[in-house]
UniProtKB/TrEMBL annotation:
PROSITE patterns: SET. It comes from the Eukaryota. Residues 90-306 form the SET domain. GO terms for molecular function: protein-lysine N-methyltransferase activity. This is SET domain-containing protein. It comes from Salvia splendens (Scarlet sage). InterPro entries: Rubisco_LSMT_MeTrfase_plant, Rubisco_LSMT_subst-bd, SET_dom, SET_RBCMT, SETD3_SETD6_MTase.
Amino acid sequence: MAGASRILQTTFLPTFSKNPSLHTTRSHSHACCVPPTTKRGSFFDRIRCSVAAAGEDTAMAGVLWGCDVDSVDNAAALQAWLSESGLPPQKMGIQKVEVGERGLVALKNVRKGEKLLFVPPSLFITADSNWSCREAGEVLKQYNVPDWPLLATYLISEACLMNSSRWSNYIAALPRQPYSLLYWTRPELDRYLEASQIRQRAIERINDVTGTYIDLRDRIFSKHPDLFPAEVFNMESYRWSFGILFSRLVRLPSMDGRVALVPWADMLNHSCEVDTFLDYDRSSQGVVFTTDRAYQPGEQVFISYGKKSNGELLLSYGFVPREGTNPSDSVELSLSISKSDKCYKEKVAALKKQGLSATQCFPLQITGWPLELMAYAYLAVSPPSMISQFDEMAAAASNKTTSKKDIRYGEIEEDALQFILDSCEACISKYSKFLQSSGSMDLDVTNPKLLNRKAFLKQLAVDLCTSERRMLFRAQYILRRRLRDIRSGELKALRLFDGLRKLFK
Ligand SMILES: C[S@@+](CC[C@H](N)C(=O)[O-])C[C@H]1O[C@@H](n2cnc3c(N)ncnc32)[C@H](O)[C@@H]1O
């Protein structure tokens, strides 16, 4: 039962393809988008005004849609619109909260095991939602644009229509600048996340988003500037819309894994201590979740965004849970085959067959590490005499193959453990260097706005690095103990052998 419910879990972080490509299927005629209630001129004038109003601070302020992350000014309008649009009366209300700035708070007693929310499908935003600018939607569908870029473009298109869009109350309540690593500049990532593998994941994600936008622009927008004016459909607005998707899009397993923005449900914050997820409920025909504990009036209600590490939570949602509170936390340990290895070529070739490379990352948890990591370490330290086993080791190091993972080579076990320990220690020293220097960073900043931002990012990075280093310390402790046991076992065996030899002499 637990297994089945795990499969049905919904997370707030759908996987975003590493290379979200668009497939052009056929060419199409040039069409003009005139929103239903506005004349063409006033529509574009309005768009230009909204972009211009961002002024010189655009890079910091982002696009002008949505509100401050902690603002509840638009909450009443959102709640009223949702009620008019079919959301049944709720036992929760949007309020300022201590965790997550705004969240849903119990207004009445909520029992454990109670179903809450019941957001009907008419209130979801999906890839099939009707576009206020119908022609723009038709163009994207002609090009078979995948769900993620389609939804990102839909959000921008609806946002710039403001009150002419059905979703204006929803969009007005979205954060203007979602917390997300998409908003960190490259120097900020390099400076604050140098020690963590999350830096690389963030760079890849930013590149994916940029690549997706450029692809849309070059293939589609450039051919339809009337529908997709560059003043609106630009990198800054895509950063915003992808930031919204990464932090709010829900995968609904009971709707065949469909992704959707679910207004109201997306006001729920995450807790690592909670084990309940959003999903579509066929019997009530709405998105619900079942509480796994009771709540009293005034208490914030939480869900789980899925079993994610602190790094993954920072990457998509822009927060790091309190130290030691996330049982799903893990840190990526990077292992490499040494270029000076006599069998470097053969080892890399064996890894390549499994889709692996000379440098691989493996997740370490406070409770241990995967068998694949040990297999990789065996390969890294194995001598030329073991060349016939390289393929077996590489296959066991891959999490894609079904081959035996639990391999053991007694003769090189000590070397393999020492290799992992050395890699751990190299990693720990990077974290320690960052954490030691973080106290003295950024004191030269004179602009208070910038200082706040820097202090905030630095704090997030310190929290992440502290939790990641903690797992490495634990691994270091376990590895040292194992090595000590192996070495003392060897010593005992040696003494025994010596004793026997003397006896026979
Ligand atoms: C799905 S939204 C939840 C509603 C959000 N608090 C809001 O006001 O719009 C996800 C965002 O909420 C915030 N959040 C959620 N859980 C959090 C937590 N445990 N700690 C800090 N921030 C959290 C993060 O900013 C995240 O990007």
